[in-house]
Amino acid sequence: MLSKILFGELIRFGVNFAVSVPSSLFRNLLRMLETATEIVHIPVTREEEGVGVAAGAYLGGKTPALIIQNSGLGNSINALASLNMVFKIPLLLLIAQRGGKGERIPAQIPMGMATPHLLNAIGIPHYTPKSAKQIPKAFQKAKKWFHTHLTPAAVLIKMELMKNEKNRSD
Amino acid sequence: MKRIEAIRIITKELKHELVVCNLGFPSRELYSVKDRPENFYMLGSMGLASSIGLGLSLCTTKRVVVMDGDGSILMNLGSLVTIANQSPRNLTLIIFDNEAYGSTGGQPSYTGGKTDLAALAVAAGIENVLVVDSPQNLRAAYRESEKDLTVIIVKVEKQNANVPVIDIPPEEIKNRFLKAVRTHVA
Fold it and tell me: What's the complex ipTM?
């Protein structure tokens, strides 16, 4: 089950503070976080707010992750650039990448196409595993960036990776 | 009351509290009144002071004091909802309400119109919401806020003080703040 892999990778990354905005692809992961004892989980109302909460947690000594859909990346760009990049406040972004192969919601497509470019534009590296097997490697690369550069790094999880799991949970 | 006077009053009450301060003139005024490693001056990310304060307050036993503004909280009203539901007892959210965007030329904000900030905070689920407009009441409200999660709305004049910009590099602001967070106090 992919959610178990993602949860395990968050733990291996050292994440102990997760901030989230609901995402259908991450529904099982978010359910696991609700009862997790190793990770404090704070749901927020909007992604940009989450960037602030996660930054505060980092200042409080935690290793934060922000778990969102790529649709919410757009409203976080200024905060990621003018808070995290300026002060060197790291953050793991775990992003459900909608708008790719098999996307049935037309509104997901423009942001889906823009996501890697938006991250590139503000200097946030992104790692997109092509299969479940590649997930640990993506997290390892993000972790290295997080600790070396003290700025955000993103792991993008494409819809097709979660598809089997989604069908099973529906 | 001018905002810098309000900042002066709160600063006099501070011991080891961690302060997260809104960008622009509020941070510059705080910096000129009393610079301390426990101050985190925001330089960008308008609207996020209360969110940064919330995240921090959930990770420390120290008291966290956020100095926010009406325009900034209006940009991030969802923050009041999350703060109310997480309800950290060690968070004091001070909102200086000058009914304007003071750092960008004094454009009017809607708190000078029909919107009641205190009622918004109460509706979000925050139990302790105090509105003050005098130095004595501000001092009393601040002392009261040390007991539990509290929002203090301070009515202030539109005026910005003539104070210099903050000349500490961002990474230094962060590094000394991180050190202050880690320092144990008796």
Answer: 0.97
